[in-house]
Amino acid sequence: MIFKNADVVFADGVKKADIRTEGGKIAEIAPSIKGADAIDCKGLTVFPGFIDLHVHLREPGFEKKENIESGCRAAVKGGFTQICCMPNTNPVTDNKVVVTYIKARAKEVDLCKVHPVGAITKGQEGKELAAIGAMKAAGAVALSEDGKSVPDTKIMALAMQYASDFGLKCLCHCEDAGLVDGGVVNEGYYSTLTGLKGSIRAAEDIVIAREICLAESLELPVHICHVSTYSGVQLIREAKARGVAVTAETCPHYFTLTDEVIASFDTDTKVNPPLREEKDRLAIVEGLKDGTLDCIVTDHAPHHEDDKNVEYNLAAFGISGLETSFALSYTMLVRGGVLGLPALAEKMSGAPARILSLEGGEIAVGKPADLTFADLNEEWTVDPAEFVSKGKNTPFAGRKVFGRVKMTVVDGKIKYEEKRK
Ligand code: DOR
Ligand code: ZN
Ligand code: ZN
Q: Ligand 2 is a single-atom ion; what residues have CB below 5 A from it?
C-alpha cells in the first residue's frame, strides 16, 4: 500500500512524504512514490502508531465493563496500534493460561497488538510470587500489581530480581494502602468542601520512593505508573539525575484536570491515584517537557454504569481513556506550546516501545507498518455516547478538543477508518 501526501512525524521533525508498506513493514519513504493501491492522505498527519503501556481490557472476568474486542476497537479508534493490558482480571492474570488466553483472543479479534502484563504475586494477594517465568514464556511483556502496590517490600525486591532474570520490568502502581485508608479523592480544599475522604500525596510518593530505592540498591530498572503528584515528579527527576534506571508515565487526566472537578460529585472524576491540585498539574506538564516523565498512557479503566452511578464513596475508580488520549494530549501539550509533534510522538510511541522493548515506535524503513493518521485541525466535542468502548465513564464529556484520529494501520492493514459524515 502507498500512503501519499501526509505530513510524517519523524523523531527530528515533520516532513511531507509518501510511505510504501509491504509485508506488514515500512518498505520505502520518499517525496513521491508511484504505484497502485495508493491512498491520498493530504491534510493528515501521520504518527508512529501509538503504544499504550497501561490499559485495562477487563477480560477475563469483567466483560460487563469491557472485553478484548471492545477494548481493541476503542484502541484503534484512539490511534493505538499496540496496547499492554493489566492483570487485575478475574481470574487474575498470574499464570500462563490467562496470558495465553488473552493473546489468543486478541489474535482472533485482530485489531491491534495486545501484550499481556502479568501479576507480580499470585492472585495479586501480595504473598507469593506469580509464575513469572511461565508467563514470560507465554508472552507477558512486563509485571504489575496494578490496582495496588505489593505491600511487603521484601517481596517487591524479590519480584524485581526475578523479573529481571526473565528480562521483564515491573510497572509499579504506587499506593500505600494504610495511608490511603479509604480516601477517595486528593486531600485538600476540595475534599474539605465536599466532605469526601482525602488521601495525601505521601500515600503515592512513599511507594514511588520505595521502588526507586529498590531499583537503585539492586541496580535494576523500574517503571512508575500514572504519576500524579508534583513531589513524585521531583523524586523521579532526582533519581534519574543520580543514574537510577527509572522510567515513568502519566495520563491525560493528570495534566488536564485538577480536583476542582470533584465538587460536582460526578463519579467519573473518581480515579486512582486521584486528581490533584494545580501545582501538581503544572509539575506533570513540566515533567513531560523536561523528560522526567517518559511517556503518556491512558490507564484506560472502563466501568459499567452500575459501578459508577452510585454515591461517590462507593463508585469504582477509573476513566475510560483510549478514545480521548490523543486529542487531549495534542490539545493540551502541542497546542498548549509544551511539546512539538515529534516530542508528542516520543511520549505516545517511541518511549513506550523502548521501555518494554516492543517493536515499533518510529516511522522508518524496516519498522512495522504501524501508523496513525490524524487531522490536527479538526475540532470536536467529547461525547461518551460515541465511544466504542463499553466504558462510557469520562470526566471529559462536552469538552472541546483538537485532533481527530482518521485512520489506524497495524502491520500494513487498515484496522480503523473514520466513517465519512
Ligand atoms: O483508577 C484506577 N482504575 N486506578 C487503578 O489503579 C485501577 C483501575 C481499575 O482497574 O479500574
Ligand atoms: Zn494503577
Ligand atoms: Zn491501571
A: 146, 173
